[in-house]
């Protein structure tokens, strides 16, 4: 039954506006506020103050209608708003793929970083419009806005990959991106 | 042995220039001339004349270094040069994925069409910069340049999908894109 729970998807013409992260036709839209990001920022006192205060939107994810199913190749646009929490730049929760599959991020607006961690090695890719960040299978990944404008990127990923957020809470990401006089600096990861 | 014949790929920062279809760092580059496209255009007399004459480049495919292996997600940029063969617009060979996997094409420059055929149904997606054409699993696909400029698109596809070109020679694509006074028209498929 499961394999036929969703009818096969038809060919689709999907248009998107990089400047607004709208996708037409659109799928689900997810909003992550500061209060959704417990245990991620190093400065927990500042996180608690922000989450229980104005609780700002940190990022949104707009998906295309292509479903997260085996053999499909869904897409989404993530917008990370500029800002920091105790000097640590706004970032996504980060996740590992339970089913190890490669993924690409394509920069659309602003400047950001793609932080990758395989449990031992940490990598950082500077992202900008026209840059593809390649995430190999087995590498956990998180995105960070290190600029003053919204950082947006298009993600393309196999529908069977899945999202394991707990892995990042358990293992960290190997580094943190902190505001510095020259923009950003990467600091060793310490538990929140 | 096979699974370890190629070492795991590391995270990569890949930049590309939509105007020239260059990818940095680059992988293999493939060139298809008219003589490489036997049996595809309806007007075989005109095809033979062109292929044995100046034999023009019809399209090129520049790949990123991400390999076509299970769990990887390679990318490529295809450039179809403007032109036609006996009134039938320049097009790619077209293929089916032996391992049915979804794929996306993202328009970069020019205008084109994405022709899809599942053996019964034919679909056509008008492509332009900023448009994603979604190719579901089980749909053969071919790209066509219906304009006067190079039509370029970025493809993202699971490395395990593979390319079956013979399927298109055996089954056709359900329709052909012909030059018309208003630009293009789709005609019923007839064997070459």
Automatic annotation (TrEMBL), chains A, B:
The Glucose-6-phosphate isomerase prokaryote domain covers which part of the protein?
32-176
The reply to whether Ion transport figures as a keyword in the UniProt entry is: no
Gene3D superfamilies named among the record's database cross-references: Jelly Rolls
Q: Give the record's keywords alphabetically.
A: Gluconeogenesis, Glycolysis
EC numbers listed for it are 5.3.1.9
Per its record, the protein catalyses: alpha-D-glucose 6-phosphate = beta-D-fructose 6-phosphate
Question: What EC class is this?
Answer: isomerase
Which pathway is it part of? Carbohydrate degradation; glycolysis; D-glyceraldehyde 3-phosphate and glycerone phosphate from D-glucose: step 2/4
Query: Could you confirm whether the keyword Transport appears in this record?
Result: no
Which InterPro entries does UniProt cross-reference here?
G6P_isomerase_prok, RmlC-like_jellyroll, RmlC_Cupin_sf
- To which protein family does this belong? Belongs to the archaeal-type GPI family.
Q: What name appears for this protein in its UniProt entry?
A: glucose-6-phosphate isomerase
State the species of origin. Answer: Actinomadura alba
Q: What is the lineage of its organism?
A: Bacteria, Bacillati, Actinomycetota, Actinomycetes, Streptosporangiales
